[in-house]
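Researcher: Quick test of sequence recovery. Tokens follow.
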């Protein structure tokens, strides 16, 4: 399978899986949490408060790991994503990613503490049910 066909399969799986486990490094140990996952193609985004531990962890080490898929009602595909994260306050991106469900933690899309984690994947392992694992690399 060529790279573009694999990218299409990965993008479709991302469309179907709205949450992920997001892992950072805290000190020298991994730390994981569930987060809402947004994407445009293979560009991945997570919304958060700039005052969280994950932002501090990313400032010390931008390498991240995301695990998505196999959700109840989903396609049962699994995505294992390695990437580099940057923290952005880009207004256009903040508006695009904003969801009113975030009001539990943030005031709104203009909240000064609202930031978006912009994840640039460099390796994605894609596994569909009953299929061999396929690897995409940048």
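Model:
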């Amino acid at each position: 399978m060529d790279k573009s066909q694999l990218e299409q399969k990965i993008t479709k799986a991302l469309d179907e899986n709205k949450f992920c486990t997001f892992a950072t490094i805290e000190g020298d140990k991994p730390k994981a949490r569930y987060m809402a996952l947004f994407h445009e193609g293979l560009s991945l985004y997570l919304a958060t408060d700039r005052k969280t531990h994950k932002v501090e962890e990313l400032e010390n080490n931008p390498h991240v790991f995301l695990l998505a898929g196999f959700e109840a009602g989903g396609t049962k595909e699994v995505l294992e994503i390695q990437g580099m994260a940057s923290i952005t306050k880009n207004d256009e991106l903040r508006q695009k990613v904003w969801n009113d469900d975030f009001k539990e933690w943030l005031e709104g899309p203009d909240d000064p503490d609202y930031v978006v984690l912009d994840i640039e994947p460099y390796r994605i392992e894609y596994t569909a049910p009953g299929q061999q694992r396929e690897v995409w690399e940048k």
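The CA atoms of residues 38 and 45 lie 5 Å apart.
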